Amino acid sequence: MRRRAHDAARGSREHMSSDDTRPGLRCLVTGATGYIGGRLVPELLAEGHQVRCLARSPRKLRDHPWAGDVDVMRGDVTHPESVGEAMRGIDVAYYLVHALGTGSDFEETDRKSARVFGEQAKAAGVQRIVYLGGLTPAGVPEKELSPHLRSRAEVGHILLDSDVPTTVLRAAVIIGSGSASFEMLRYLTERLPVMVTPSWVRTRIQPIGVRDVLRALVGSARMPADVNRAFDLGGPEVLTYLDMMRRYAAIAGLPRRLIVPVPVLTPRLSSHWIGLVTPVPRSIARPLTESLRHEVVCHEHDIARYVPDPPGRPIGFDDSVRLALQRVRDAQVTTRWSSASVPGAPSDPLPTDPDWAGGSLYTDRRELAVDASPEALWRVVEGIGGDNGWYSFPLAWAVRGWLDRLVGGVGLRRGRRDAARLRVGDSLDFWRVEEIEPGRLLRLRAEMRLPGLAWLEMYAEPGADGGSRYRQRALFHPHGLLGHAYWWSVSPFHAVVFGGMARNIARAAAKDATDRAGAHEPAG
Known about the structure:
single chain, 524 residues, alpha/beta, Alpha-D-Glucose-1,6-Bisphosphate, Chain A, domain 4, 2 domains, globular
């Protein structure tokens, strides 16, 4: 089992091994369902450490290749009891969570969570806390920073004052396949050959490759006990966002982009603009753009005293982009910015579960015989969404995605992490994979803005005549009168949207089966 995790980690970067023969540490990772946390876990395992993950929804970690090699506990960083239980026997605790996007009081939630984490770490005798925060501009009072950066800085201060030796790593723009910063850069550059851009595209920043962030996180576990401080993390180059877009275009083989900065696009307007052009919703785009108002450049590289740079490191911007693009093209993106659930998204139980509290439930059911094997049908079901679309009335799905973006939702453009395979917790356009039984069931939970909770289930089952049977069920649990009105306003379109979806999935499965059979016929 440990070997499997080691191989998965090595597939995402060069192995970080050293001649260190000391026994592995016991590490707690919070935020393992997120972008960085999901990549850190296999790195720690590859270094011989034991890993425990604290997650609100442990099921989301079930399908990760390293899931069998870690101890997973259910809990929330705002709850002292669950954090205290998770801290038992731990040497190093990684704090990789934040409450951004949970509401206007996210700063207070971050503050409370950090205090709980520090207090419980001290009570449990944890030897070190490691926290990944944001790089803040020198000479700018924290009260003048964006709420996002201000909160990340405050969390760092709270942890440093916890009486537990703490390493605070501060990074600006992280470049890696699936990171929000990289996706924003990629889509802006690829989709807009001519751009009217905000003035912040001329702000100087110091991007860093995700591999070097992970290297610093892993290496920080063994810092001496007397180290209690923050470290700046950055790559070898200081660039403007304008430089980054032009260099990305060159690396990706795109024609040179015409970029015209204008001063009238505020961070708020910029976030709307980014939300319309890229898969990154404005709830995430806004803190990213607000963070670019000030110059964010490293003023020290002291981390190298404790986590020495190997030859050729840190990785330069161009190489980081090439590595990220290769991962995207090879469909080997292990985690994405959308790995973490959207704040406010519904949670268990499913309305048909025995422990559901009750209430109104609307259902749309479809069932069809399919002239293909269950395996062929499942390939179509598991491949749904992203570039493959939703097999019915593309304009209707596109319009629903646009409307969701306009009201601050995630929209339809998050796509897929992998073109062929899904796992529990994956984002899939404006859905989230809630359950998957390979070969049989895919259950999706809606994360678009709705006056209620919604699910979509797809089943591939053996048929009575040797073919297969496709079953589809859409469920909606309305909230209030608006929820009921919403269902009845869209129900006239269900025959087209859901009915067409079932028929087209059945046709696609039959065609896939025919094509594969033809490909295996011997040449005449």
